[in-house]
Amino acid sequence: MLAAGWDHTCAVDHMGNARCWGDGGYGQLGQESTANIGDGPNEMGDDLQPIKLGRGRRVQKLACGKFHTCALLDDGFTKCWGRNSAGQLGQGNSQQIGGGANEMGDHLASIDLGSGRIAVDIAAGGTQSCAILDNGSGKCWGGGVGNSASQMGDNSPEITLGQTILQIAVGDSAACAVLVDGSLKCWGSGSSGQLGQGSTSSISESQRMLIPPIDLGGRRARKVAAGMAHMCAILEDSSMVCWGDGSRGQLGHGRTDNIGDEPGEMGVNLPLVDVGTGRSVLDLSLNGYHTCALLDDFSTKCWGDTTDYSIIYGDAPSEMGDHLPVVNLGTNRSARQITSGSWHRCAMLDDCSVKCWGQAAWGRLGYGDQVQRYDDNPSRMGDNLPTVDITLATPGTCLDLSFGLVFWTARRCKMMFVQHVSLLDMIWLFLFD
């Protein structure tokens, strides 16, 4: 399992151990140091120790914000570390964690989610973190909430959107939730139309219950993902739509205008993203100004600004669909999961190895160097793109990693008492959540 922040990358192996590499300046790598990892020799592989999160604890899921990381543990508790300028670590203060001695492991307190409450899923982005609770509601902290003890625990209001929350995605300044009936609600900053309400107005936390669902033209959402100021959703037929900031082609509509910031742009007028003839979308990952999709043939396509203006796909006609190249991950290799940082991307492959590409600053690619590996440079991609020296599973346990995610998702749905999700949706959640 992979997760990426602005300039760091994390992975969870089949034993539930988490490791992170890249920018460590705020302690977001959890190594009780602020050193970068992955930009020099002898920093990866056996030299990169698992993050200490408490005696006997296993990681079920990781989520990364801009400069912080959160873990959902096997006991349902959540811990966060890294930068804490806006309360995103949920500790009731603004002190960063993870960069000094005796700050991790049993020294790192679990987040107080309220009396008797535990988390069944987590999300993070920008300076905010969120959890879906075992009663189907949610809680978020950061963005200025959570840096005082009086703002956490029972004093932190639960997010209730009228239905059970299935999934939350957090962007730089906005968040969206998929509800049990497949509807979608977003809140936060609407500066680029990322809330999908036909305006640039923001929606505060106190207004969340009053907001109407995003108009998806009568279609249900299965998953939502958030970038800097754009959102994308996978729909019930495995097609996808995107809205919000389109300035660098990240919406995949062959132009650079925003969508969702004016009336009449959502609903039936919201175009599907063309990912290729006969192709459908299994999973997606957004960050910064780009979008990536994992397709039904396990190929990967990315568009928007993936290389800091070096090359941009999706901002002009005839750049999407069959014209959009597949990311070359090597002979007979295909992706099973993708994750996106600000200017880099990583994939877990079918053999449970990991490959990363994009900008290499701070060691975010994990190759022990600072060599850029852009997806438009054939000499750096494909078989020439090395695997990251990180072991997620041995050949005999690669399936264990995949099925471990299945069992965790089943446990999550059971704890949320979800009764109105179709069998197809449950299978999709099991395989690709």
Fold blueprint:
Layout: E1 2-4, E2 8-12, E3 18-22, E4 59-64, E5 68-73, E6 78-82, E7 119-125, E8 128-133, E9 138-142, E10 165-170, E11 174-179, E12 184-188, E13 221-226, E14 230-235, E15 240-244, E16 281-287, E17 290-295, E18 300-305, E19 312-313, E20 335-340, E21 344-349, E22 354-358, H1 398-415, H2 423-432
Antiparallel strand pairs: 1-2, 2-3, 4-5, 5-6, 7-8, 8-9, 10-11, 11-12, 13-14, 14-15, 16-17, 17-18, 18-19, 20-21, 21-22
Explain how this protein is built.
It is globular and about 55 Å long. With 433 residues, it is mainly β. 57% of the residues are buried. Helix 1 packs across helix 2. The strands form 7 sheets. It has a 4-stranded antiparallel β-sheet, with no helix packed on it. A 3-stranded antiparallel β-sheet has the order 1-2-3, with no helix packed on it. The chain has 2 helices and 22 strands. Strand 17 and strand 18 form a beta hairpin. 6% of the residues lie in helices and 28% in strands. It starts with a strand and ends with a helix.
Structural class by SSE content:
mainly beta
The averaged pLDDT comes out at 91
The biggest sheet amounts to: 4 strands, antiparallel
Using only CA atoms, what is the Rg?
A: 20 Å
The number of helical elements comes to 2
Structural features:
single chain, mainly beta, four-stranded antiparallel beta sheet, three-stranded antiparallel beta sheet, 2 helices
Summarize the structure.
This protein has 433 residues and is mainly beta.
